[in-house]
Amino acid sequence: MTDYYSKIEPELIPATIADYPVIQNMARFYVYDMSRYCGQAFDGWEFPKDGLYECRDLKSYFETKNNHAFLIKINEELVGFALIDQLEVLPEADWNMGQFFIVAKYQHSGIGAKVAKQIFDRFEGEWSVGAIPQNSRAVEFWRKVISEFTQNNFKELKMTKEQLKTSEHPDPYPMIMFRFKSGI
């Protein structure tokens, strides 16, 4: 992390339903970023004929009890979003990192790590955080951040589609799941 970014404290701002279109628009760039890693591994990641990537509808993060949506800003500039839910991706998890995105300009700056740790501090309990194995940058990011946050006290699990399938999440991808505790 450069000295410049080490002095910056990103803001984690609770998003409201009025922010839903902003997050949904940013999610197109999130999907675009992920297509770099997932595009050849899975169906459905082809570049759209109309040239406009779409992300699944993220409105449930604003409408479902105990889901939390956040905008991430630095000096009033949007730099990403974080979406927290309580899907039982792993049994007995209190919190799940549903989606996490930092715009390219701030990736590899340490900003994402600062935000992730703010979130883990804010939501105490058992956590699950997943990444598609082909998205090696995300896997490395979460492994490093969670290792630092927990002082290397976490579990890393390789999960199949079948293990991750739930009624709320009927068509999952295989994932590398990180499990750890926060604030306990």
TrEMBL record:
The keyword Transferase applies. Gene3D superfamilies: 3.40.630.30. It comes from the Bacteria. It is an enzyme of class 2 (transferase). One of its GO terms (molecular function) is acyltransferase activity, transferring groups other than amino-acyl groups. Keywords: Acyltransferase, Transferase. Its EC number is 2.3.1.-. The keyword Acyltransferase applies. Pfam families: Acetyltransf_1 (PF00583). InterPro entries: Acyl_CoA_acyltransferase, GNAT_dom. Residues 21-180 form the N-acetyltransferase domain. This is GNAT family N-acetyltransferase. It comes from Candidatus Berkiella aquae.
